Each structure stands twice: as structure tokens, then as C-alpha cells.
Amino acid sequence: MTLYPQGVIIGKFYPPHAGHRHLITTAAAQSQKLAVVVLGNRFENITVADRVRWLAAEFDETNVTVIGMPNDCPEDYHSAAIWKAHDEALRLALKVSGITKVDAVFSSEEYGAELAAHFGAVHVMVDHARTAYPVSGTLCRDDLTAAWRNIIKPARQDLAVRVILVGAESTGTSTLTTALMEHYRGRYPELVDVPEYGRQYTYDKFAAARAENPDAVLSDLVWTSEDFSIIGERQNEMENEAAARCPLVIADTDSLATSLFERLYIGEGSYGSYLALTQLPHRDIYLITDDDGVDFEDDGWREAEHRRAEMTEWFKEELTRAGHSWILVTGDQERRMATATEIIDLIIAQRTRFTSPPWATRTVLAGA
């Protein structure tokens, strides 16, 4: 097999998907070095920087270098002047990255041959019929939910709409989470439960305590910063696992809430959940369940009845301080659901709408 000293791939990667991964993997296997150039424009609502970051994460520690290049030039494959404009954008993107000679251009498109000729390089066609991976950026943009598993995992983590519910003990957080999950599961069959891991951890910790002392009661548990480190880390993992499977995540708490419960149980000087908090995934909206007007229900595992109002205020303060978008959901269950679904529907519509310039072409797969 020929091993080209310097291979190049160009594309929009809007968004990057399994077909792109196959193209890059194939080209990387046939190149000593491979440059993947992301050419995006201002009319697309995923930034070039995000696409570069996702591809770089997907191909970490390989011979692949991902380069971003804003390119607002119109497309016209029949115009020599437009071809030159695109060629120059690509040439400069490569030049400032230290690449002055291209040996092979890899693509799945017919225009790859002409582009390669402009650079005095060989054109290597990869899966032109899209039989290996019958997916395209057009299909992903048309129906993000149906195409979700075809989008590379780093992109899924950022593209997923994340709705996080938080609140003090016995303020209806789990009740509202369950209702929202039931409401949206018809549209999102792959919607994954993201429960409060701290509750399961408490069950397990108490069971271990009872195994040592059958007379132990809940108030005997001694909490440590390590406990909250484990809880926060696992809460992040559960949320990210859900995002990998579905473009909508509805989580019953998160690692930010873990940090506040750590404050409640241990005090201001404990920072076990700090690392998890620094790795908090992106958020679209926090919904804080109001304690006002909600009776405290002691299910045998709750100990903070008299600090509910204080904790509710903590959530408001910390989310505001961190710059997160949050809504206090209050009133009866019907009002809370109405508030939640109205904003969630608007966020979904905004986050799943892909914009393109008027000259953008659509990829139509064979048999489609």
C-alpha cells in the first residue's frame, strides 16, 4: 500500500459523523501525516472551533492534525474564480500550519479530483457510493434524532440538549423529572434515566454500616469528602452516557447539586466534589424546584427538612454565580410541567435547527 507523506482532507463536518470518521481513518492509514481542514462559514450555526475540537478529540494521539479555517466564499463548482478563492483559503490554512506540499487529497466527492489537481496531488476516492456508512451531513441535519448514533461521540456530548433538575430535599424534583421523562419519551425513545446517584450511594453506604452494626441508624453515617468525590464523578458519567445515546438529556440532579449537598453534610471546607464540578458538561437550562408550598415527605432517607429554604437559596446563588440559565419552577404540578415543557420545547427547536447559506448543496445518497 502506498504511504503518502502528507495527506489532506477538507470538509464542512457539519456535523462530523461516522462517514467522516471512516474517511479520516482510511486516509490516516495511507498517510504518514494527515491534515483535516474544517472549512466552515458564518451562516452555519455550529462553529468551526467546535467542529475542530470534536474531531481532534475523536482522533487524539494519531497522525491526524485538525485545522480550522473560516471560509465565507460562496460555492460554485463551475467557476474558476471561485475555485481559486477556495484553493487559496485551503492553501493558507495549510501554510500557516507548516504544510507547503500536499501529496494526496482524500475525499468521497467528485470535486476531490479537481482539488487534488490544483495542488499537484493524487486524488484518493473513499467510499464514493457511501455503502460503508450510508450517512451524510444533510441526513444528520434533517433528522438529528434519527442520525444520533452516526454522529461522532464528542459532538454528541455537546449537541445534546441537557435539562438539569435540582432542588432541596422533598421539593418535587424527582416527581417533575419522572413526569418530563414520560412526556418526552414518545419523541425520544432512547431517552435515558439519569437518577440521583447520591441516593443509591446512600443506600449502599447504609447497608455497609448495617452489616457492621445491625443497630446502625441513618444519622450514624459519617460522610467524607471522598464520598462526594465518587458521587460527583459518577453523576457526570451517567449524564454523559445518556447524552451518547439520545439528543435529549433530562437529569434528576448533577454534580453541582452534589457540591451543595456536600456543603450541607460536611460544611464549607469540604471540596471532594470539586474535580467533578470542574468537569461539568455544558448545560442548556437548570430547573430549580421550589420548596415553597411543598409539604416535606420523610421517606426515611431525608434529614434536611428545616434547611430546605436555605438550600433552595444556595441553588439560586451558585447557578447565578456560575452564569448558568435557571428557572425556579413553582406552583402546583400542572403549572410546573407547563413551565418546564414550554422552555424545553423552545430549546430543542433552537438547538436542532441547522442553518446554511443559500449556495449550500444537499447530499443525496444512492437509493434515498
TrEMBL record:
InterPro entries: NAD_biosynth-regulator, NadR/Ttd14_AAA_dom, P-loop_NTPase, Rossmann-like_a/b/a_fold
Cited SUPFAM superfamilies: Nucleotidylyl transferase, P-loop containing nucleoside triphosphate hydrolases
Pfam families documented for this protein: AAA_28
Domain NadR/Ttd14 AAA residues, every copy: 162-336
Keywords: Kinase, Nucleotidyltransferase, Transferase
EC number: 2.7.1.22, 2.7.7.1
Top-level EC class: transferase
A molecular-function term among this protein's GO annotations: ribosylnicotinamide kinase activity
Protein name per the record: Nicotinamide-nucleotide adenylyltransferase, NadR family / Ribosylnicotinamide kinase
Organism: uncultured Arthrobacter sp
